[in-house]
Amino acid sequence: MSAELISIDPATLAEVGRTPIASAPDVDAKVAAAHDAFALWKRDRRTRRALLAACADALTARAAEIIPLLTREQGKPLSDAGTEVWLTAHCLTRASEVEWAEETAGPDLTGRRVTVQHRPLGVVAAIVPWNFPLFLMAAKIGPALAAGNTVVVKPAESVSLVVSKVVEILRSVLPDGVLDVVTGGPDTGRYLIAHRKVRKVSFTGSTAVGRQIMRQAADTVTPVTLELGGNDPAILLDDADIDGSATALAHGAFFNAGQMCIAPKRAYVPEPMLDAFCDAFADRMGSLVVGNGLDPATTVGPLHTRTQLDFVTQLLDKAVAGGATVVRGGGAGTDLPGHFLEPTLVRGVDDTTDLVALEQFGPVFPVVGYRDVDTVLGTLDDQEFGLGASVWSANLDHAARTADRIDAGTVWINQHNALDVSLPFGGSKGSGFGREGGLAGVEEFLHTRVVDVKL
Ligand code: NAD
User: Fold this and answer.
1) 226 C-alpha to center of ligand 1: Å?
2) Is 209 a member of any domain?
3) Which of 27, 113, 322, 431 has its CA 20 to 30 A from that of 136?
4) Are residues 340 and 287 in the same domain?
5) 178 with 257, same domain?
6) 312 by DSSP, 3-state: which?
7) Among the atoms of ligand 1, which is closest to the Cα of residue 184?
8) Does residue 202 line the site of ligand 1, with CB under 6 A?
9) Helix axes 133-146, 45-61, angle to 10 degrees
């Protein structure tokens, strides 16, 4: 077995570079260093705040090196890579600014003085996917470090170069051992989770792997936060603005080539509005440019892996074989040799079509016509995911009542995938549990203990 990971440019299939696969002794050494560093790092919140702000500055200063590497290794367009680097720095700064009470007086108990303390946990294992490798890492290390923990990151193997580079930049600012990275595949992740000195696992990735992580963490009774897959529906009510919703959804559906946990992944549209919605949506797709992310004209890059391309293509082919119609797209969209699929709009599908029912994680957008919104909401409730959803209506009260009936971590009204790193973000049902962002995000990395003194 190779002791190296080989990163491939998904647009050209050329090798971008190599990273070592961490051995068990490497992981042991990094966790031990993180454990040692915890003793000092947990003490002084003001120092942590200043150093996290310095981390954000260091990233911003080196953005010109990071952005093209992120594009070459992940595939996303340069402008989106720039946005991700900015968001990564912003997330670290925002996390450092979160306020919480480290100690509060307990209830007045006769003859006792009780203090309730909120303390960091120790070494955190942060396991991160490939779709937003830097931002999703920052969503963990920002709050974990701000709360006083130390962190060992395990990135997805296919983005190890860019994550290692960013961790190296952050490490140049932070005290030794406070942050490190171990590169490798699932075996490296499993070994890290099982480590006795790891006190918390924060995982973002697929629901299938999330289940495994939860089982693995059970062996050591290590707490987990699970940010898992999604299959966000956009539900147009009968008074929705067709042009406005089509414009916003066509943008959100194809951002990052559809490889976004909270991308709108399907629309439910009243049957009388179906033709007008599909026409407007297909029209908006006309402005999208498929290509190599390094070309400044590109707005939609390749899918990140061949496996991902094959999976989405199979779902599309199966839907078409079952009677679905491709309204626009369906081809590669470029002659480049990489993993390309152009933005594709599909109709003539329903909830029994795998393209609608599964998380396809690619640039294909199925539209389902409906007669009765109660049936749509009932079906959603039975489905696996509960990450995000959107409701579209000119009547905000009507939209809010509908939103109230959807079990999801975020429900948007007349928008989809609007994010802010100070808001609590996470899922329900098969999309996981625990929150990232703001105070809720920091609280995932604290535990509550009591000091009870007999007077
Ligand atoms: P993945 O689950 O395949 O891998 C995620 C990470 O887990 C990688 O670092 C991988 O090496 C590691 N891993 C795999 N098996 C492991 C094991 N047994 N033990 C420990 N670590 C293991 O996910 P992916 O393909 O990289 O990312 C795409 C998925 O992530 C999609 O399902 C997407 O919806 C989800 N996602 C969710 C969110 C969210 O916030 N909810 C955000 C982004 C992506």
Assistant:
1) 10
2) yes
3) 27
4) yes
5) no
6) helix
7) 11
8) no
9) 160
**Do residue 198 and residue 182 come from a single domain?**
yes
Give yes or no: residues 219 and 277 share one domain.
no
Ligand 1 center–CA 205 separation, angstroms: 2
Q: What pLDDT shows up at residue 1?
A: 39
Judged by DSSP in three states, 233 sits in strand
What is the whole-number distance in angstroms between the Cα of residue 307 and the centre of ligand 1? 14
**Which residue minimizes the CA distance to atom 39 of ligand 1?**
227
209 lines ligand 1 (CB under 6 A): yes
Question: Does residue 239 share a domain with residue 222?
Answer: no
| CATH code of the domain containing 326 | 3.40.309.10
Question: Contact, 247 vs 281, CB < 8 A?
Answer: no
Query: Is there an atom of ligand 1 within 6 Å of 427 CB?
Result: yes
**146 within some domain:** yes
Cβ contact 154:41 at 8 Å: no
- CB-CB neighbours of 109 under 10 Å: 10
Q: Is residue 425 a part of any domain in this protein?
A: no
Write out the residue range of the structural domain in which residue 354 sits. Answer: 232-420
Count of structural domains, the chain? 2
The string of pLDDT tens digits covering residues 306-359 is: 999 999 999 999 999 999 999 999 999 999 999 999 999 999 999 999 999 999
Is 57's pLDDT higher than 90?
yes
- Ligand 1 center from residue 428 Cα (angstroms): 17
Helix (H, G, I), strand (E, B) or coil at 370: strand
